Amino acid sequence: MHDAALTEQIIGCTMRVHRTLGPGFLESVYEKAPAHDLSKAGLQVECQRAAKVVYDGIVVGDFVADMLIADTVLVENKAVQALMQAHEVQLVNYLAATGMEIGLLLNLGASSASIARIVSKAKQFSTLCEVVFQSCKSC
Questions:
Q1: How many CB atoms lie within 10 A of CB 35?
Q2: Domain extents in the chain
Q3: How many helices (H) and strands (E) does the chain have?
């Protein structure tokens, strides 16, 4: 599936969830509901994907990506009144660390959903840095 079509499908599922559930739930609700819809649509969905950042052969950090869709789009979910620049920076850093190019920042916590599509040009930090994805738990 083309990246634009995939992100449109993810956004469509997310908007459907927001129209149905409305604002005010925890972030985990806004993760599980679209993950369910996307899985029903036949897409591979991984929630709470753990990753270790390895630098020069040692683990220097770790993070958990909210969702990874079709091994292509990294999704960071929020349930806040308004997105802040720090939320975008978080997603940009996750993209840079993983070498992934496409990320979606989805906020369903306010009365109007907020969505940001971020395309990263960076493939990786450097040749000394890698991210090792760990097994994840299902959505």
A1: 23
A2: 3-133
A3: 3, 6
